[in-house]
């Protein structure tokens, strides 16, 4: 799969059940060589501005998380990352690079899945307008903790610094 590094400080379990099992740094072309028995279901974006990471507050989960979501039919992981970032936060990154792939185990069925993780930068964040899914956005300093932030999201942000 080209250059890859598996990070050892995982797994991390979120309070609502899903578990971040692993994060593997690889090239975007490596996505096509993932274990086909595990579905690639979505994309997340770790967006940075002045050393802080964008997080969004999900109304239904009542928690802070990274922007992202499920792939629509026929959509590439990169297209999903850009669409979800825009839909959830209104942000459009200056740069967006593929960071790697996370493997998760969902709740309640414990089914494994892959998530494509993208890392971006933005110099001038756009104004956020609350929507049906996301009530607020914040720029979080990963050197600190934040009540209500999913541990898996915090781990991925720190791994993508």
From TrEMBL:
<dbReference type="InterPro" id="IPR020084">
    <property type="entry name" value="NUDIX_hydrolase_CS"/>
</dbReference>
<dbReference type="InterPro" id="IPR015797">
    <property type="entry name" value="NUDIX_hydrolase-like_dom_sf"/>
</dbReference>
<dbReference type="InterPro" id="IPR020476">
    <property type="entry name" value="Nudix_hydrolase"/>
</dbReference>
<dbReference type="Pfam" id="PF00293">
    <property type="entry name" value="NUDIX"/>
</dbReference>
<dbReference type="InterPro" id="IPR000086">
    <property type="entry name" value="NUDIX_hydrolase_dom"/>
</dbReference>
<keyword id="KW-0378">Hydrolase</keyword>
<comment type="similarity">
    <text>Belongs to the Nudix hydrolase family.</text>
</comment>
<feature type="domain" description="Nudix hydrolase">
    <location>
        <begin position="38"/>
        <end position="161"/>
    </location>
</feature>
<protein>
    <submittedName>
        <fullName>8-oxo-dGTP diphosphatase</fullName>
        <ecNumber>3.6.1.55</ecNumber>
    </submittedName>
</protein>
<dbReference type="GO" id="GO:0035539">
    <property type="term" value="F:8-oxo-7,8-dihydrodeoxyguanosine triphosphate pyrophosphatase activity"/>
</dbReference>
């Amino acid at each position: 799969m080209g250059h890859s590094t598996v990070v050892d400080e995982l797994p991390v379990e979120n309070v609502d059940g899903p578990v971040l099992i692993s994060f593997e740094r690889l090239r975007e072309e490596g996505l096509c060589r993932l274990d086909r028995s595990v579905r690639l279901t979505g994309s997340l974006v770790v967006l940075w501005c002045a050393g802080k990471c964008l997080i969004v507050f999900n109304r239904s989960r009542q928690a802070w998380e990274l922007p992202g979501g499920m792939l629509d039919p026929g959509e590439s992981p990169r297209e999903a990352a850009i669409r979800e970032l825009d839909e959830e936060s209104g942000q459009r990154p200056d740069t967006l690079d593929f960071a790697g792939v996370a493997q998760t185990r969902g709740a309640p069925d414990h089914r494994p899945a892959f998530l494509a993780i993208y890392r971006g930068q933005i110099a001038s964040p756009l104004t956020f307008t609350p929507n049906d899914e996301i009530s607020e956005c914040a720029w979080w300093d990963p050197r600190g903790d934040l009540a209500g932030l999913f541990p898996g999201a915090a781990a991925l942000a720190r791994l993508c610094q």
